[in-house]
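Batch manifest, entry 17 of 40.
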Amino acid sequence: MPGRGTGQGYVMISAVARRYDIHPQTLRMYEREGLLKPSRTEGNTRLYSDADLEQLETILSLTRELGVNLAGVEIILNMRRKMDRMQEEVNEFMSYAKHELARGLGDWEQRLGTALVKSSPTDLVRTDQRQSTEQAARPAADDASSDPV
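Output type: structure tokens
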């Protein structure tokens, strides 16, 4: 396929026909069939944008390389547009889901932080320290139980 648009704006029908080796009437037919929608000047001259040229390349690839007829091209292009819209919807949903999950995670982190603040610091003592603390506390408890009141 010839190179895409130059990024310089719009191209007239004669230049597009030369670049892609097709007759201008073919481009007009693609427009009548709704496959291409070039913009127009005040004088009604067709101007093809980079997006139009990309669409034309797709049409030519389908017809020339794959042998698809124009009805098939129309179906394929419509399906691609629907798939693009569906992909946008999926992306929006994923963004929403990420936001909600992040918000929920933030809530849980806040709750967890609050729960840890309310805990007694002695509950967080390591096992080896707790055992030595318990052993140190036992003789004092034994002494207290042996004293008569």
